[in-house]
């Protein structure tokens, strides 16, 4: 019984030591954004300072994703009200 308890303790200690080792985390590489794309984003009313490009997809303001191929199809919304409203060309 005592040998079994020691063996179990050793196995548990080895398991904890190997499980807590740091693993090498790889950060995704972000692509450079052309000035024309930043100008288009700014003309659509978004903040062009918070734009990231990853694998052909723009991440705008941290939570909006737009593919580069779809960027030219987006049009400005209609300014009918004095408060901001969401407008899209996509069908729901």
Rounded average pLDDT: 78
Helix and strand sequence? HHEEE
Cα distance, first to last residue? 67 Å
The strand count comes to 3
Reported for the largest beta sheet, the result is: 3 strands, antiparallel
The proportion of residues in beta strands is 5-15%
- Supply Rg: 25 Å
Structural class from helices and strands? alpha+beta
Helical residue percent? 25-40%
Report on this structure:
This protein has 92 residues and is of the alpha+beta class. The chain has two helices and three strands, in the order ααβββ. A three-stranded antiparallel beta sheet has the order 1-2-3, with no helix packed on it. Strand 2 and strand 3 (64-67) form a beta hairpin. The chain is elongated and about 80 Å long. The model has no long low-confidence stretch (mean pLDDT 78).
Summarize the model shown.
With 92 residues, the protein is of the alpha+beta class. It is built from two helices and three strands; from the N terminus they run ααβββ.
Question: Keywords for this structure?
Answer:
alpha+beta, 92 residues, 3 strands, 3-stranded antiparallel sheet, single chain
Question: Mind sketching the topology for me?
Answer:
Elements: H1 2-19, H2 35-43, E1 51-54, E2 57-60, E3 64-67
Antiparallel strand pairs: 1-2, 2-3
């Amino acid at each position: 019984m005592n040998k079994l308890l020691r063996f179990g303790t050793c196995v548990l200690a080895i398991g904890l030591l190997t499980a807590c080792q740091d693993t090498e985390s790889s950060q995704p590489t972000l692509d450079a954004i052309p000035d024309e794309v930043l100008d288009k984003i700014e003309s659509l009313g978004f903040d062009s300072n918070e734009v990231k490009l990853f694998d052909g997809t723009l991440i705008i303001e941290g939570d909006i994703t737009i593919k580069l191929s779809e960027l030219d199809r987006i049009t400005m919304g209609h300014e009918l009200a004095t408060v901001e409203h969401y407008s899209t060309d996509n069908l729901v």
